[in-house]
Design brief:
The protein is an alpha+beta fold. The chain has 17 helices and ten strands. The strands form four sheets. It has a four-stranded mixed β-sheet with strand order 1-2-6-3, sandwiched between helices. It has a two-stranded antiparallel ribbon with strand order 4-5. A two-stranded antiparallel ribbon has the order 7-10. Bound molecules: protoporphyrin IX containing FE. The site of protoporphyrin IX containing FE has 26 residues, from helix 12, helix 13 and helix 17. Keywords: Coiled coil, Heme, Iron, Metal-binding, Monooxygenase, Oxidoreductase.
Length: 508
């Protein structure tokens, strides 16, 4: 069976390659067992690079990649160079290989699953491992996002049973529903005479996701929906800082930056911000810890923090802090994409409303609507692994310690994996095997919104539940519409929706 599946997927991959007209034909060989000599690292196709600055000049006015970002950049690289593209590191940054081939992605993700290293937030890692330690912090762990190897494994095994067991996450259903209902009430009161939200919609949705994650991670209502919340309140500060965190990380870690050689203004700002963010998180967590010491709840009513404190208090604080900032923007932006796709596909929205109103216990269509939105408009462009050994990918030798970007956003929009890929068709996740739209015909590593394996998203189950519960309440209360031009997306560390937010929320 496994052999048949592999054959099916290898065949599909070849079709994917052939479907792009200008694809580099040298890159078709996809087997570890090839008898052909491997091509060298230097031979991997990609934009020509210059010493020190790598490929930066291509992104400047007049360059071939000028103003390209997100899906458009990925598509341009794929069409020009093929399913594997090399980008040289700039200013001391690492060399990167971008993969648009699902089978090679599977090869890397599976082989790196023992001790997966997902680099990315390098400036945060620097702050936690160098700056903080210089200030005298000597903790063994730095956090789920910045630790690797043995330390990461120990942290992860403390949190896995709490965050990944469907039963323990299901227990938060009621609490999340309470937050969802409060948010719906807030949205109703924030509408103008045209049924549009008067305040900045992305901030509103961020308040909802912060309130949800705060309740689950810390076990307290943060009262983010309070209309009298001062602009300098800790909750508003937290949201602002999480936003800023992603903005500085984007500049330092995902764009050309010389911070490794010279402390730029953004670098200095980042170090200060990371410090402020940690202190603010610590404040929230400290208050909760104090309160918890006087309470004794049964296990199924405990928050993530409470459950972790039973294991180890220091680890609890570290993990709760990472959950707070990894769980806000990701869910909020995904939710905006879901609203948008349902607004411009009213037939799907009506079908969803039918399910929400009539089937309280089993709701497959809502899950399909969310999944399809994440395929079509993902909040993350893909995934990342650092190679721990050499590989043969598509006939090229890939050295150790190279960053491999797995371009899921692009692969999930390939016709060979998902027929009619640019259409919003939640049904593809529900139809039978003999239907051409059946999702199982896609390579299983083409679309993987929550990442893969041992290092996959720890908040996955919680995110899914949060979104289902909130979406059901919104659909039950509002007919969602979108006015005017299509929505604009900006790629940063996560994909953001750019203003204006032309949503109309009419009472049902
Ligand atoms: C739609 C929402 C979300 C998406 C699409 C998403 C996506 C991802 C992805 C792609 C990864 C990398 C996985 C890998 O390396 O294989 C990740 C890691 C992570 N996510 Fe999420 N995430 C979401 C929501 C959340 C939430 C709600 C939380 C917190 C409760 C969270 C916490 C984390 C943490 C802590 C990690 C690092 C895990 C580790 O390295 O062990 N995420 N997420």
């Amino acid at each position: 069976m496994l052999v048949v599946n592999l054959f099916k997927h290898t065949q599909k991959n070849i079709l994917c390659l052939r479907s792009a007209s200008t694809i580099n034909n040298n890159a078709v060989n996809n087997s570890e067992t090839t008898t052909q000599p491997l091509k060298t690292w230097e031979e991997i196709p990609g934009p020509p690079s210059l010493p020190i600055i790598g490929e930066i000049h291509h992104f400047l006015p007049g360059g071939s990649l000028y103003k390209l970002e997100g899906y458009n950049l990925q598509n341009h690289l794929y069409k020009t160079y093929g399913p594997i593209v090399k980008m040289k590191g700039h200013f001391g940054g690492p060399d990167v290989v971008m993969l648009f081939d699902a089978e090679s992605s599977a090869q890397i993700l599976r082989a790196e699953n023992n001790s997966p290293k997902r680099p990315g937030f390098m400036s945060l890692e620097y702050y936690r491992k160098v700056v903080k330690r210089k200030k005298g912090h000597s903790d063994k762990y730095t956090g789920l996002i910045t630790d690797h190897g043995q330390e990461w494994r120990e942290l992860r095994s403390a949190i896995n049973p709490i965050m990944l067991q469907p039963k323990s996450i299901k227990a938060y259903n009621e609490a999340l529903d309470e937050v969802a209902q409060d948010m719906v009430a807030r949205m109703k009161s924030l509408r103008n005479e045209n049924n549009m939200i008067k305040t900045k919609f992305s901030e509103e949705i961020n308040l909802w996701s912060l309130e949800s994650i705060g309740l689950i991670a810390l076990g307290v209502r943060l009262n983010s929906f309070d209309f009298n919340l001062p602009m300098d309140s800790p909750v508003r500060k937290l949201i602002k800082m999480v936003h800023e965190f992603f903005a500085v990380a984007d500049i330092l870690d995902f764009k050309p930056s010389i911070w490794r050689f010279y402390p730029t203004k953004t670098f200095k700002r980042a170090m200060k911000l990371y410090d402020e963010l940690e202190n603010l998180n610590a404040e929230f967590i400290k208050k909760t810890v104090m309160r918890l010491k006087t309470e004794n709840k049964p296990d199924d009513e405990k928050s993530v923090l409470e459950k972790l404190i039973d294991v180890d208090e220091k680890v609890a604080v570290l993990i709760a802090s990472d959950l707070l900032f990894a769980g806000v923007d990701t869910v909020a932006n995904t939710m905006i994409f879901i609203f948008y796709l349902l607004a411009i596909n009213p037939d799907k929205q009506n079908k969803l409303r039918e399910e929400v109103m009539n089937k309280p216990d089993r709701r497959p269509y809502i899950k399909a609507c969310i999944k399809e939105a994440m395929r079509l408009m993902p909040v993350a462009f893909g995934n990342l692994r650092e190679t721990s050994r050499e590989y043969n990918l598509l006939g090229y030798r890939i050295p150790k310690n190279v960053f491999v970007i797995i371009c899921h956003q692009h692969m999930a929009l390939m016709e060979c994996h998902y027929p009619r890929p640019h259409e919003y068709i939640p049904e593809r996740w529900l139809v039978d095997k003999d239907d051409p739209l059946y999702y199982g015909n896609a390579h299983p590593f083409a679309f993987s919104i929550f990442g893969y394996g041992a290092r996959g998203c720890i908040g996955r189950r919680l995110a899914e539940l949060e979104m289902e519960v909130f979406l059901a309440r919104v659909i039950e209360n509002f007919q969602i519409q979108w006015l005017g031009e299509p929505i604009k997306v900006r790629q940063s560390v996560v994909n953001y929706v750019v203003e204006p937010f032309n949503f109309i929320f009419k009472d049902v």
